[in-house]
């Protein structure tokens, strides 16, 4: 039922302006969203003897997330297991594509939280195990080729290009940063006036020659005026400046302030000195900062634990 009204609206618009649907392919500026359920492998293992139960769970979870996307003028490209791919500004023009994408991402988190509350209530009532479901979301804006993709036998209306690849990789980076949303500079640039965004890193994405500045999305425009958010934004900017200049002592002092300032926004894990996740530990070891004379590689993640080690080595 959640699909009906937005889908009918899209069809009606195309019926009135059929020339807007280009079937062969064209290049357009598009905003792409990828989302993924965190820990899905563990969740699916708990349902290995109840595949129908897993199907019901995922349908119940993905439906409100899908509705949040479609209600903001998006096109759902595909479902990939527990993942969703969607895009804006095709086939119909959407001058507010970045704003709509950010709105959808925030609404997805809100609906996931509401659904988790229902899961917890049901578990408490039935004496079952409560397993909250969390999502990671990546957004990126840029040029894409849009059109019917596939084979002579089967095809679908989709998008291709580096913008899509970066969006997918940004979604994957939410696991490393341990935050729910990561957005690219193209999205942030055209949405910053209506949302509270926070720069978190500068990374080298595979296939790109220039580093990509990435941000997280914390809330809407009213949050920008919040003194706590302003403090977090200023502290984070200072900390990243120290980090990029390899002033480890100042960076470590600033990162502790950032961690405390981030607690009200639920992203303090971004600034944890000691990582808890084994995956994050592995990432840190692979990209470890060595001697203080060597600048951090452009493609290295912002790594508080590696920063602490570098500071200790510098003191020795």
Topology:
Layout: H1 4-16, E1 26-37, H2 40-46, H3 51-70, E2 75-80, E3 83-88, H4 97-126, E4 135-150, E5 155-160, H5 162-177, E6 181-184, H6 185-189, E7 195-203, E8 212-220, H7 221-224, H8 227-244, H9 248-262, H10 278-286, H11 304-315
Parallel strand pairs: 4-6
Antiparallel strand pairs: 1-3, 1-4, 2-3, 4-5, 6-8, 7-8
Helix pairs in contact: 3-4, 8-9, 9-11
CATH C-level of the largest domain = Alpha Beta
> What do we call the CATH homologous superfamily of the largest domain?
Nucleotide cyclase, GGDEF domain
Order of helices and strands: HEHHEEHEEHEHEEHHHHH
- Number of DSSP helices? 11
Average predicted local confidence, pLDDT = 84
Low-pLDDT regions: 1-7, 274-299
Helix content: 40-55%
Distance between the termini: 64 Å
* Helix/strand class: alpha+beta
- The CATH topology name of the largest domain reads Alpha-Beta Plaits
Summed up, the domain count is: 2
Using the alpha-carbon principal axes, give the shape. globular
> How many strands appear in the DSSP assignment?
8
Residue fraction in strands: 15-25%
Largest sheet: 8 strands, mixed
Gyration radius, rounded:
21 Å
How would you describe the overall organization of this protein?
The protein has 316 residues and is of the alpha+beta class. It has two domains: 24-219, Nucleotide cyclase, GGDEF domain (Alpha-Beta Plaits, 2-Layer Sandwich), CATH 3.30.70; 226-316, no CATH class. The protein is built from eleven helices and eight strands. Helix 3 runs antiparallel to helix 4 and helix 9 runs antiparallel to helix 11 (304-315). Mean pLDDT is 84; it is low at 1-7 and 274-299.
